[in-house]
Each structure stands twice: as structure tokens, then as C-alpha cells.
Amino acid sequence: MDKIIDIKKYICASEELDFSAMYRQCSLGTKTLPVKVYMLEHRRQGHILIDTGCSRLLRNNPLTFARMLSRSRLSFGLSDDICTRLTEEKKDPLIIRKVLLTHCHPECCGALPLLPKYELISTPQVLAVLRNADSRQDGIMKQTLPPPEIKRRAAGIYEGETILREYFKWVYDVFNDGSILAVDLNGHSRGMAGYYIPEKQIFFAADASIDETAVNEPLIPTKKLLSLQYDPDMYLSVLVTLRRIHKEHPEIKFLFSHSV
Length: 260
Hints:
alpha/beta; 6-stranded mixed beta sheet; 260 residues
């Protein structure tokens, strides 16, 4: 019996990206891609979010919000947050019991303060970045930090068998039942996690690539794309790893924050 009953996607913003400027000799031009949040229904853990998407809270500080938009052609309305999306479906945001955070960028964790009650889970590296943001209280991250009462927990090391060991140094077990595994995908940000569901053969890879295009095709990132990454060398290394997994395990479906 599957532990993951259902997976549903929500669009909580969009971003315009010029692929021709991001990859060498690429003729794809400019594409408007969604910013997605995924909700999983776990048989024992209940409803789980992978990231939260943007929220209206990001507009509370006009200066830092303007700086954010200067780096990204992000677009979202006041109602484009996960709580509103759930309410539109007549679902109470209280159904969200867990949030699996991939990384601490505002467009991915912007609605953490809006959710009423949950447990925040990620890899030790991502939670360390979040703790540092707590202590500095700087910039736009002020608007995206979870309330102090929200419990945070780092996933422990996975002891079972998995193909992920061929590709990653550490594999984490989110719920200690093998239903959702986590790995480090550092590069795009300082600390980023990917989540793999073995029984569904789905890999949520956050912003390790703009979308599936660079995994499915041998596109070469430009200096401009690499300049947008926290660690360009690690970003390239992770991209090569994802391409290798795709080639050696085509049965695995990759989903990114901007998956179409």
C-alpha cells in the first residue's frame, strides 16, 4: 500500500526567463514559467507542502522587494499564495501538517508565516541557513521567517537501500519510513534540498535547474546564468548529477520549482 496517496500542484507566482540568455546557442527565447508548490497527502503524516511559494508579505518592505524584482522578473498578485489557493478549493490551511523546505529564497518560502500550524522539516544544511537568517534578520527574509512557535526538525540519515547512494554523499529520511528521502543540492543557494519519493519515482529538485529542459537536453549554462548562483561550480556539479540520474534511470520524473 502506497504511503503517498496523492500529489497536487499549485501555482503561486510566475517568472519570466530568457532561455537564450541563460544557455549557449539556445533558441528557446523568453518563457513565462510558473512558481509551483506541491502538496502531498501522506497516509500517516497527513498533508505536506514542498515549499510554500510567494506571499503578499514580500511587499511589506518596498525597498527589499524592489531589489528582489531587480534580480528576477517575478510576478504575483496579492491572492497568489498557498493559503488563498487552498481556501479557493474550500480547504482549511490548517490541514497542512508538515512543510518540507527546499531552500531559503523568498519565492519558495514566502508563505511560511501565513500557514497557521505545522512542522518545518529539511536537511541539516537548509535549517542551518534558516537559523542564520533568524539571527541576522536582514533584507526580505524578515518577511518569510516562520513564527518562533513553529517546530523545526532536521531529517535523519537514511539507513535503507536506495539508488540515490550512487549519486549523493548523504541521503536523509524525512519521516523515518523511507517514504520521502532528501539529498543536498547545494549550488543555486547556500543549502538546498531535493526530495525523492521512491514509490512514485518522482524527484522534486527545486531550483537545481531552471526547469526540465537542461536535464533533458545538453544545454550549456552561460556566464549570466552562473552569475545568478550562490556557487556556480556546485551548481554545475549538481546539474551534471541530475543529468546522469536522468540518463541511467529514465523512469524517474524530475519536478522543479518552475516545472511546466
